[in-house]
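#struct-help
A.M.: can someone run this one for me? Single chain, 303 residues.
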Amino acid sequence: MTHPGRVEVLRGEQLTLEVLPEVGASVLNLRAASGRPVLRPVELGSVETSSQCASFTLIPFSNRVRDAKFVFGGREIVLRPNTKDGLAQHGDVRNRPWHAERVGDTHLRCTFDSRDFADVNWPWAFTAGIEYRLHGPHLDMTLTLTNEDTSDMPAGMGLHPYFARVQPDLPGVDPTLAVGAELIYDTDERVLTVGAARELRPDEDYRAPTPVGSREINTTYTAWDGVARLDWGARALTLTADNVYSHLVVFTAPDGSLALEPVSHATDAFNLAAQGVPGVDLRVLSPGQTLAGTVRLTLDGNW
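D.P.: on it. Structure tokens below:
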């Protein structure tokens, strides 16, 4: 990718959103009316792929697929690895151009059709959409994924927002994190799930607000109530997800930001489901069927 293309800007009363349709309809920046960053701040010139953006979309699956292959419907599905350790990761829409339609000053609709690309890393035809809406202190992000093929399709989706932990006017303040989840997954050296979810240990439990501090986290929670919250004292931010997002990935990124990723299934759910592991929430879409859900970000306090 040589240039991230045009920037679509939505301006509401309390939030300003910048979106890059040519880079997977990813979020470049989300800022409060004061200019303070809500998601990690990004300079347009630094964007080479969606990995440098503030948030990107995970479709038609989220996170990692072991060895880039799985069995579904009695046949082996082989994908192209896109990581150094031989995995397929984060689907195949986040670095492709999407069509964008301005519905209004505070509403952007973006769509994607896999049939427009001969090299999509997925053997089923699908369409996808994301709608961004600003209203008051809220940003709503609505994802859809539709099976456009003639046979059943395994499916998943999610969002990968990076939140700015450091607030420029609150030096040294690390926010507390609250996640209403009761279970967690163990993973191997490639951060692949190795079995069914288990109960939390005390150092993994964020049901009561707790600072992340110096912990390095890269894990998936489930039995989640769909709510996560960051609180700096002077201000707070709440993420609320529809029930389809049954899992939450929490990741302390190397740049100091915190990723809170609502997703519809466990990491490597395609292989885990084939092994009979319960609770991984692999979805199967019949031809014409759609998976859909909204994630809301809400500002509280002095932004």
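A.M.: thanks! The chain has a mean pLDDT of 97.
D.P.: also worth noting: The first strand starts at residue 8 and ends at 11.
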